[in-house]
Amino acid sequence: MVEQEVRGNVLVMSINRPEARNAVNGDVANGIEAGIVRLEEDDSLWVGVLTGTRDFFCAGADLKLINAGKAGEMSTERGNFGGIVTRERVKPIIAAVEGPALAGGTEITLACDLVVASTASRFGIPEVKRSLVAAAGGLFRLPRVLPANVAMELALTGDPIDAERAYHFGMVNRLAEPGRALDVALELAAQARANAPRAVQKSRQLMIELANCDDGAEGIRRSGHELVNLFSTEDMSEGLTAFIEKRPPQWKGR
Length: 254
What we know:
This protein is of the alpha/beta class and 254 residues long. It has ten helices and eleven strands. The chain has a six-stranded mixed beta sheet with strand order 1-2-3-6-8-11, with helices on both faces. The chain is globular and about 60 Å long.
């Protein structure tokens, strides 16, 4: 249900359940979590890309399972819904969205660090149309990436937002022509993996952990502490040497 493909230092995870519009069931949730485990444990992998099929990213929860009282099958112990929405991890993941990413599909997208979307894609949390609520992060993560009133509109009407409007507000990092979301996501991944992997990981960690930090001094202290920790790494030395020698650095991730 979730295929894996390694492209250099990038792990591509593809949800492949087109007969159900890539809706999340147990196989999808466990497949996404398995991909994240591989990404985290393999030192040669620096960035993940999560995508769907050409016509659909993910329709969210499999409503047949909910109706049958089997909603728990769509979650994993470490990642909760879809194996990702509460999964603690170190390495960045880019969502490459083709077609609709609705309900839990939007929430899976919001759990990723960066978003590339084709102009044919759209996002939304239509749970209210089925007497449900978006319970996998949409209600508190959407207001972080959209203006509060726009996020509220999506929550109360259940109507979607198209990719271009999402890009306008900053929810989407890159727009792509239909069929090219994965290609553009790989280009974005290449930009990230051109940098020292541990520095990228620490920068991601600090941005997440310090997002609600009200004390500027604490933020400076934490950032400085992580910078000092990087001083003893091989990549720190390589980065400075490469700059002095005017050549591309050769990162080792250590």
